[in-house]
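Supplementary Methods. Inverse-folding protocol.

Structures were first reduced to a discrete structure-token string of length 67. This string, shown here, constituted the complete conditioning input.
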């Protein structure tokens, strides 16, 4: 089961200009977004630990997303 709500992801696609969106397209984007979010989260956690912190902060997320 996915963590991201289908309705929110569908809104993102529609906001990008798509008048209609299939369920399979939403599911595909959810899978991709969750993979990307997981990768960023792992890197952000590593950055926080390297800095001697247990708490991941916004700067960790931003830095992790650039790599």
């Amino acid at each position: 089961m996915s963590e991201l709500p289908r309705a929110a992801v569908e809104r993102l696609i529609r906001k990008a200009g798509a008048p209609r969106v299939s369920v399979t397209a939403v599911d595909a984007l959810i899978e991709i977004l969750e993979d990307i979010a997981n990768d960023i989260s792992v890197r952000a956690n590593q950055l926080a630990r390297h800095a001697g912190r247990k708490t991941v902060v916004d700067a960790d997320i931003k830095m992790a997303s650039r790599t």
